[in-house]
């Protein structure tokens, strides 16, 4: 195994009495997309900005591409790419001018025109940035972040304010970068984004990582009981079970064929996530309809659920759960 | 019955990420990046029409108004033979122009860039911080040279003001201009941290500049200002810059209109240098790449 792209142990940062980051650990492997999920104020952005060298930490061990970001110089900065939250600087320059200009900061830049094409802005190459739409502006931000050919790319809430189509295009772009060998550390509060893009994700709460896994297994999601719902004799029925396949087979046999209104679902990532960041400390999925409490069910093998909703009977899953509440 | 497909969709981290291409290239030199910054800054500046019109037209328009209003019927300033009003106001407008294109320009534009996140973005790149400031120096040089050229051309062409021919006077012009521009630029960098947002930057910076113009003898004959106002003005660099420019553009005998009876070149050099050094120290110590509310 190659050295970790990002290695963080016991990271601490406080603002006055508030502990924004309080003993956070994480490791990002080379070549993966790593998502950091968490509510506003959980410490995501503070953490990422420490990793980017924008902020000083108060304690803990941090290595990004083998160096301490607090002390790293230009050579290190040329190996990372940073896409911050909303910016609207350099409004009077065109897309092309700006990407060409930023390329001049780096020792081995990508071809700026190819980068403009890769983010789908060739049509807008001669447009001043102040005339770009929000989604185009964000793609320009990514272009500026990757023009230096970074080994590690930081994306801070990259698709906030995107329409669904723009998000899909953006996700393809990011997945393409990963496939090209770029390590990506992404913060987001969109669960479907983490589910779609991330190889692994960490949930941060109160400045600490409270869960870390591949999205499908986050918070022991796959091990939680499934809920089977059906209609029998005019009544809605519901059963929690660790073995839904056996249960449904028996049910079908008992009812002699097609089970009316059959629905089998496991807790969605959103439900698991809400439990993880909730007051209940992950002990239960509080207040979320259809969620199974973790009853210590035995895992029957490595259950892996499809990430998307396609083919899953759980059609009630919200398609784009956004957890942003205070903006 | 449709069971969920069991396709494993978990992506393992790429076992052997395609290695990033060999990094043979060297970091670009600070000089090369500074020149690139100067170019980008200048292009951006000249495209921002409002700022361009204000910074370039303001001194010219003020000169035109004051020369026309006060200079009616060939009125002159000072004891016989006196100086035409247009000529008398020209040095003050040159000094104002320097202040606008250095101090006001940088104080507002850096505050806006900080607010918009542009500075933070630059800090995340391998751009050397020095190159950012050298780029600003380049911008200020270009802007102030264009501006003073425009002002002198209008003064000579439209108002028939005689410009000096003596090389010694142009030498004085050169050092007052250079020192004034440098001091104004570093003070602009330092002052840019005061406005709380980019939007409020003009509202904070412009009044400072306007008040300085009134008390520093740009709009009035300096010698006729109340002496307390002269003392207040002496604390600030605009008074000294305007005085230096008067020694360039006014006839020698006009020195009798100076309250001190001298052009005080040494004093001018000392005050502007002091502002340059203090501005530099304060600017370096207070400069922020992030917004104030950004931790």
Helix content of chain B: 55-70%
Spatial shape of chain A: globular
Tell me which protein chains meet in the greatest interface and how many residues each side has: A-B, 63 and 50 residues
Average pLDDT metric of chain B: 86
Query: Which range does the strand content of chain B fall in?
Result: under 5%
Find the CATH topology of the largest domain in chain A.
Answer: Rossmann fold
Quaternary state, please?
heterodimer
The percentage of residues in β strands of chain A lies in 15-25%
Please, could you describe this protein's structure?
The complex is a heterodimer of chains A (327) and B (295). Chain A has two domains: 6-217, P-loop containing nucleotide triphosphate hydrolases (Rossmann fold), CATH 3.40.50; 223-317, no CATH class. With 327 residues, chain A is an alpha/beta fold. The longest helix of chain A is centred in the middle third of the chain and has 16 residues, at 164-179. Helices cover 26% and strands 23% of the residues of chain A. In chain A, helix 3 (95-103) packs across helix 4 (112-118). By secondary structure, chain B is mainly alpha-helical. Chain B has one domain. Chain B has ten helices and two strands, in the order H-H-E-E-H-H-H-H-H-H-H-H. Chain B has a two-stranded antiparallel ribbon. The longest helix of chain B is centred in the middle third of the chain and has 32 residues, at 85-116. Classes of the chains: A alpha/beta (327), B mainly alpha (295). At the A-B interface, helix 2, helix 3 and helix 8 of A face helix 1 and helix 4 of B.
């Amino acid at each position: 195994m190659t050295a970790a792209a990002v290695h963080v142990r016991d990271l601490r940062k406080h603002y006055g009495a508030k502990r924004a980051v309080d003993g956070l650990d994480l490791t990002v492997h080379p070549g993966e997309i790593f998502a950091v999920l968490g509510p506003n104020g959980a410490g995501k952005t503070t953490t990422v900005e420490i990793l980017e060298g924008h902020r000083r930490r108060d304690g803990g061990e941090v290595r990004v591409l083998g160096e301490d970001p607090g002390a790293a110089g230009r050579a290190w900065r040329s190996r990372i790419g940073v896409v911050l939250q909303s910016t609207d600087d350099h409004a009077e320059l065109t897309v092309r001018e700006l990407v060409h200009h930023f390329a001049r900061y780096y020792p081995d830049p990508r071809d700026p025109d190819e980068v403009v094409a890769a983010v789908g802005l060739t049509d807008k190459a001669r447009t001043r940035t102040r005339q770009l739409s929000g989604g185009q502006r964000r793609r320009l931000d990514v272009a500026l972040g990757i023009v230096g050919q970074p080994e590690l790319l930081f994306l801070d809430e990259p698709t906030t304010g995107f329409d669904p189509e723009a998000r899909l295009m953006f996700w393809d772009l990011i997945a393409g970068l990963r496939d090209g060998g770029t390590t990506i550390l992404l913060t987001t509060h969109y669960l479907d984004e983490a589910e779609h893009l991330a190889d692994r994700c960490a949930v941060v709460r109160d400045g600490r990582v409270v869960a870390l896994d591949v999205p499908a297994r986050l918070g022991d999601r796959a091990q939680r009981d499934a809920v089977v719902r059906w209609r029998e004799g005019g009544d809605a029925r519901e059963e929690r079970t660790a073995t839904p396949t056996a249960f449904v087979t028996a049910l079908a046999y008992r009812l002699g064929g097609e089970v009316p209104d059959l629905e089998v679902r496991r807790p969605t990532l959103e439900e698991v996530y809400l439990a993880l960041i909730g007051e209940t400390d992950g002990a239960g999925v509080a207040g979320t309809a259809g969620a199974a409490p973790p009853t210590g069910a035995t895992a029957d093998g490595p259950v892996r659920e499809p990430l998307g909703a396609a083919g899953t009977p759980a059609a009630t899953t919200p398609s784009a759960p956004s957890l942003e509440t205070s903006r | 019955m449709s069971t969920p497909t069991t396709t494993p969709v978990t992506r393992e981290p790429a076992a052997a990420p395609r290695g990033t291409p060999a990094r043979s290239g060297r970091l670009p030199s600070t000089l090369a990046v500074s020149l690139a910054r100067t170019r980008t800054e200048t292009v951006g500046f000249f495209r921002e029409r409002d700022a361009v019109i204000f910074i370039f037209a303001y001194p010219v328009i003020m000169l035109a108004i004051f020369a026309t209003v006060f200079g009616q019927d060939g009125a002159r300033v000072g004891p016989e033979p006196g100086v035409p009003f247009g000529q008398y106001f020209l040095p003050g407008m040159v000094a104002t122009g320097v202040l606008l294109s250095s101090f006001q320009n940088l104080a507002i534009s850096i505050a806006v860039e900080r607010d918009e996140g542009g500075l933070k973005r630059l800090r995340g790149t391998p751009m050397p911080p020095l190159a950012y400031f050298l780029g600003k120096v380049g911008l200020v040089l270009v802007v102030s040279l264009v501006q003073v050229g425009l002002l002198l051309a209008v003064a000579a062409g439209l108002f028939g003001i005689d410009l000096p021919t003596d090389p010694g006077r142009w030498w004085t012009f050169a050092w007052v201009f250079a020192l004034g521009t440098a001091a104004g630029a570093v003070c602009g960098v330092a002052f840019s941290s005061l406005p709380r947002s980019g939007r409020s930057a003009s509202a904070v910076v412009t009044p400072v500049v306007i008040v300085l113009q009134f008390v520093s003898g740009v709009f009035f004959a300096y010698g006729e200002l109340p002496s307390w106002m002269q003392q207040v003005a002496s604390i600030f660099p605009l008074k000294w810059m305007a005085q230096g420019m008067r020694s360039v553009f006014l006839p020698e005998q006009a020195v009798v209109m100076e309250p001190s009876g001298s052009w005080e070149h040494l004093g001018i050099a000392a005050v502007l240098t002091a502002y340059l050094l203090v501005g530099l120290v304060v600017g370096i110590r207070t400069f922020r790449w992030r917004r104030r509310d950004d931790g």
